[in-house]
Specification:
By secondary structure, the chain is mostly beta strands. The chain is about 5% helix and about 20% strand. The chain has a two-stranded antiparallel ribbon. It has a two-stranded antiparallel ribbon with strand order 3-4.
Length: about 55
């Protein structure tokens, strides 16, 4: 049996891979940070991680 410890951030445009132990969990999905988990409120773009310009 394999235990998953990492997965892609659930934000569709985000390129980040998150450790499930560090992820922000919302609706049983793993996100790399609060901006992605909250759907990028106030039109915020990017998650603050180098090289990632996600937005939704």
């Amino acid at each position: 049996m394999t235990t998953v410890t990492q997965m892609k951030c659930a934000c569709p445009d985000c390129l980040c891979i998150v450790n499930l132990s560090d992820a922000v969990m919302k609706d049983e999905k793993a996100y790399c940070g609060e901006a992605c988990a909250n759907g990028h409120p106030q039109g915020s773009s990017g998650c603050g991680h180098t090289g990632c310009g996600c937005h939704s």
